[in-house]
Amino acid sequence: MTKPRAAETRKRTRIQKENEDRILEAALDIFSTFGFRGATIDQIANAAGMSKPNLLYYFRTKEAIHQVLIDTLLDNWLDPLRELNPDGDPLAELQSYIRRKLELARDYPRESRLFANEMLQGAPRIQEELRDLKALVDEKAAVIEQWIKDGKMARCNPHHLIFSIWATTQHYADFDVQVCAILAEEESIERRFSDAAKTLEQLFVHGLKISTK
Amino acid sequence: MTKPRAAETRKRTRIQKENEDRILEAALDIFSTFGFRGATIDQIANAAGMSKPNLLYYFRTKEAIHQVLIDTLLDNWLDPLRELNPDGDPLAELQSYIRRKLELARDYPRESRLFANEMLQGAPRIQEELRDLKALVDEKAAVIEQWIKDGKMARCNPHHLIFSIWATTQHYADFDVQVCAILAEEESIERRFSDAAKTLEQLFVHGLKISTK
DNA sequence: AGTAAAATTGACCTGTTGGTAAATATTACA
DNA sequence: TGTAATATTTACCAACAGGTCAATTTTACT
Fold this sequence. Notes:
Two copies of one chain form a homodimer. The first copy, chain A, is mainly alpha-helical. The first copy, chain A, has two domains: 12-60, Arc Repressor Mutant, subunit A; 69-206, Tetracycline Repressor, domain 2, CATH 1.10.357. The first copy, chain A, has helices at residues 14-38, 41-47, 52-58, 62-82, 90-107, 109-120, 127-149, 158-174, 176-182, 189-206. In chain A, helix 1 packs across helix 6 (109-120), helix 4 packs across helix 6 (109-120) and helix 5 runs antiparallel to helix 10. The interface between A and B is large, with 66 and 66 residues. The structure holds a DNA duplex.
């Protein structure tokens, strides 16, 4: 015990807490932009307003920082799916799920990009988390399957439906540059968000066919 | 002219052509997985079965390789959108667009990931290409808008519709690890693809509402 | 076969990167 | 106020990265 690392001790100091938060905040910026290998500790330390050795006093390795980010990310990220209520109205439930995912993409784009980066690289650091994810998705897919069997919504493949919801919503975080480049620049983020929400609702509920109502 | 670099000379040798192809092939692997900053020349050279200096004999810098990949990528990538025919049947045109994009995701996942990596990092190296992209998208969005005005398809925001098509199809390339982890492992790529195609058609055309036909 | 151009390599250089060691400064708390 | 634990910094290291150079081998062509 010659070197009682801050992160290891039981009680966390005020300074410790503050600095760890600053580091994680900065690391989220850098990792989400450059990916794990593309990010450097120097960059993160700099963004956190801190010297590199000082940063390494709080997190022993680059991996350690990344791990914490990924872990906390996944928790929040899956909350909307967890809340899908089997007893609610199917279309309303799905619409609210879509909306909540879209809000996450709007409010936490860096988290989305961090996750996307990890996926692009083949998810080398989150194999076990993917297993938990599968369990949750399978569970909710069963819920959707039941809805379909009960004749409450159109037949479709529940897993792929979930993929489509993920894809369309996260797109606004992950491909934000592209979205902004293509939409007129004067479009505010609020406008983009509400247009996206309206379009997704239209698509997922009614599709593109002329409705005969 | 003391050093007539291979890539600069008019006539391309057999060896030159072969090696450039091998390098680009290897670079696509590495860049698409690790992103620009995460990829190293050593990795690429190694994957191409070639020494680093030899690789640098064909491409002067890491950027040069990346640039070629991005340029050729964008061309092929946008072909399906270019072919959207204003005089065709709207829903059939869009369905065939979706299918072609899905085929691209299946057959050229690395290209998709390369592009995704660039987007995640804020598209630092493809600003001007994004402008061309905007022009094309605006043009096709106008086509869709006309279809809507003609009462041939349901009202929606054409730009966001295109985003949704991109998102859902590319998802199968970019998030392949996740998709595979969540679907049962025994599912073949053909099965995944056909399930995805069917689901997307259902979604984009009919939506999830119970159809009354 | 001879030769000039093209291709390849090993050795090297410079800057960067993840991480360490030891010394110093600061804080919390009795 | 003293002091032990905590926090921070300076100086450093070894490995790696992008890229160059000069020398050597291979190829294409007469």
